[in-house]
C-alpha cells in the first residue's frame, strides 16, 4: 500500500479524506495493515479491538489477524457478580454487539491481504474524532473503558473463585477416593 501524508494542516471546514479498506487491499506487513485500520477507525470515530490471531503450527508466524470495533460482542452475563453497584457498572459496558471488522491474511507472496471487511456499526460513531476532541469526550471515553476494565476484572475474580472452588472439590473427592481405594486394598 502506498503511504500518503495525511498529516497536513486542515483548514476550517475542510474534512480529512478517509480511505476505506476493501477486500483485496494489500499491505506489506501485519503492522502496516493494523496501523491502517487503526487510523481508519480514528478518522471515522471508533476504537479498534485486537481480536483473533491465527498462527502457524510449524514456526509460530502470524498467518491471519482479525481486528474490529471495540464495541464488538457482548460482555458475559454473570448472575453472581454481587452488589447493585457492580450490576449497574456491568450494564454500562462498552460492548454493544457491533459487527464492524476486518480480516487480513498473509498470502504466499508474503503480502497481507484484506479477505473480509464489514463496515457497518450498530452504534453511533464519534462525529469529531480529530485531535481537537473535547476533554469531556475524552474523559467520557476513559470513564467508559475504565468501567469495562473494572467489570472484566470482577468477572475474572468470579471465574477465579469458581475455579478455586472446583479445584477444592476435586481435591476433596480425590482424598475420599484414595481413602476408599486404600480400605479396599486393606480388606
UniProtKB/TrEMBL annotation:
Annotated region described as Disordered, given as residue ranges: 1-23, 69-94
InterPro entries the UniProt entry points to: FAR1_DNA_bnd_dom
Species for this entry: Noccaea caerulescens (Alpine penny-cress)
Domain FAR1: 35-126
Biased composition (Basic and acidic residues): 1-14
Protein name per Swiss-Prot or TrEMBL: Protein FAR1-RELATED SEQUENCE 5
Origin superkingdom: Eukaryota
PANTHER family for the chain: FAR-RED IMPAIRED RESPONSIVE (FAR1) FAMILY PROTEIN, FAR-RED IMPAIRED RESPONSIVE (FAR1) FAMILY PROTEIN-RELATED
Amino acid at each position: 500500500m502506498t503511504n500518503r501524508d495525511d498529516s497536513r494542516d486542515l483548514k476550517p471546514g475542510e474534512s480529512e479524506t478517509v480511505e476505506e479498506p476493501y477486500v483485496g487491499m494489500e499491505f506489506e506487513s501485519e503492522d502496516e495493515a493494523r496501523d491502517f485500520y487503526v487510523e481508519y477507525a480514528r478518522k471515522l470515530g471508533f476504537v479498534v479491538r485486537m481480536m483473533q490471531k491465527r498462527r502457524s503450527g510449524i514456526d509460530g508466524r502470524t498467518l491471519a489477524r482479525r481486528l474490529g470495533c471495540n464495541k464488538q460482542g457482548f460482555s458475559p452475563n454473570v448472575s453472581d457478580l454481587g452488589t447493585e453497584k457492580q450490576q449497574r457498572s456491568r450494564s454500562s459496558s462498552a460492548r454493544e454487539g457491533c459487527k464492524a471488522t476486518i480480516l487480513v491474511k498473509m498470502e504466499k507472496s508474503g503480502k497481507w491481504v484484506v479477505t473480509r471487511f464489514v463496515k457497518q456499526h450498530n452504534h453511533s460513531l464519534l462525529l469529531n474524532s480529530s485531535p481537537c476532541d473535547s476533554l469531556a469526550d475524552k474523559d467520557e471515553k476513559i470513564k467508559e473503558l475504565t468501567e469495562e476494565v473494572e467489570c472484566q476484572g470482577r468477572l475474572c475474580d468470579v471465574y477465579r473463585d469458581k475455579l478455586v472452588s472446583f479445584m477444592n472439590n476435586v481435591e476433596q473427592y480425590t482424598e475420599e477416593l484414595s481413602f476408599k481405594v486404600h480400605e479396599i486394598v486393606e480388606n
